[in-house]
Amino acid sequence: MVISMRSSGKKDAGVSPVVGVMLMLVVTIIIAGIVSLTAAGFMDSTGTQTDEPQIEFVGLYTAGYTAATVSNIDKQTYQTEAAGLLFKVVGDKPVDLMKMHLYLASGKSSGGGGSVDLGYDDPVSTAYLPGGSTWNSRRQIILPPEYMRGYRIVLFGLSEDDPNIHNTIADPGDMFVVSCEYVNPSSPSLAIGLRKDDADGNTVVSAGIGANGDAILTLSNAETGYVYVRHTLIESDMIATV
Fold it and tell me: Start and end of every Archaeal Type IV pilin N-terminal domain (predicted)?
């Protein structure tokens, strides 16, 4: 039996060159979008591109005192400025100080050791101030001024009678200080004391920490957990004047 096959005279239709070019453009745009989103996510995780404000650690401020001059402190007088961890708002977004959370952990050789976490609502303990439980046992340390009673974080560089000193918003370019219970710039190493009390004045947590390379501070957003600063404290972080 002979089977007769006839050609229809038509060729199989291929993809139109125009359609092919359009498909290639669509694929290229999709790939570019994925790469862009990935890059944006990476930049956000490294802190170079984010909706969060940007903060830098300035240093451990000693209110004008050094190891050579701290012995001249009159214990019966308050200092005129809050000594402690000094930060600066950089970039173009303001910072809500009420959202700041500080965690400081010492290594094996950092002063008295320990760790402490503090927020805006954890005021400076009165234990080290005149009349406090440990007042008489302290020597050659820088204590918080009177206006720090009831506060932990204040704007830096304002006089104690400035009504804006306790503002909770720090604008770009502003500096703010997280006050310590005491700062000791004396040898053998720069050291700070931090303490959190309960409503009755009893110690919840207390830490004495030396700035000798094995104590790490972390400043973060208490609500989102975003880390603004992570820094290892060292002796050269001490700044007597700004």
Answer: 14-69
SS (H, E, C) the chain: CCCCCCCCCCCCCCCCHHHHHHHHHHHHHHHHHHHHHHHHHHHHHCCCCCCCCEEEEEEEECCCCCCCCHHHCCCCCCCCCCCEEEEEEECCCCEEHHHEEEEEECCCCCCCECEEEEECCCCECCCCCCCCCCHHHCCCCECCCHHHECCCEEECCCCCCCCCCCCCEECCCCEEEEECCEEECCCCCCEEEEEEECCCCCEEEEEEEECCCCEEEEEEECCCCCEEEEEEECHHHEECCC
**Res. 178: pLDDT tops 70:** yes
Cis peptide before 145 (omega within 30 of 0): no
- pTM confidence score: 0.76
Reported as a single tens digit per residue, the pLDDT across 87-126 is 999 989 999 999 999 999 886 544 456 789 999 999 988 8
